[in-house]
Amino acid sequence: MTTLPIPALPTLMQAVEQADSAEALLRATVALAAVAEPEAAGTLVEVLRFNNPGAAVAAVDGLIAIGDSAVPALLELDASNYGARAWAVRALAGIGAVEGLAVLEEALATDVGPSVRRAAARGLGQLRLETLPETVRGTTLLRCLQALEAGSADGEWVVRYAVVVGLERLALPEPAQRSERLGVLPRVHSTLLNLATEASEDTPVVRLRAAQALARLQSDD
Hints:
Largest sheet: none
Shape: elongated
Structural class: mainly alpha
CATH topology of the largest domain: Serine Threonine Protein Phosphatase 5, Tetratricopeptide repeat
Number of domains: 2
Number of helices: 12
Radius of gyration: 19 Å
CATH architecture of the largest domain: Alpha Horseshoe
Order of helices and strands: HHHHHHHHHHHH
Helix content: 55-70%
């Protein structure tokens, strides 16, 4: 069986830049995202500016696959371009780089789109805090917790559900950060207990997920 050669990265990037239709942009973005090369990050971020949801999804997948090398380009996005910024939140949440913390905090607190706030909540729970010096790890963890605590009162149940997921991930201790994460457990338990109680949470699926999170955290203590 003959294996077709992968086009050179400049050719793939040029195909995105020269796409003359929505379908062509989608195809070119999917091909560029598949190579997951750091040099493609800028071009993939540019795709987020276009009104093409399919291409944006592909670009986000590619940026997440690239990882930390894509973060600078994502942080440089013009905040006035709401569509691009919303997709950037999804990418930053998926990458988990602590450099995206401020963007995720702001998105959860103020973004008008429930899906964006949901992505931010999940992202706050899975930032890779182990990449930080020990001297700032605890304060960064506390910032994530405070943002999620505020998000637990969000008016959309899908966001509150994501907050539960974020809180659970935030509190599950990794061996290297067990002491810092154990320090936030009482507040995490309190917020989850509130979300698991019918008197304060009217959506059954959120209550169920909060109860599951509590059970998992308690079994890990």
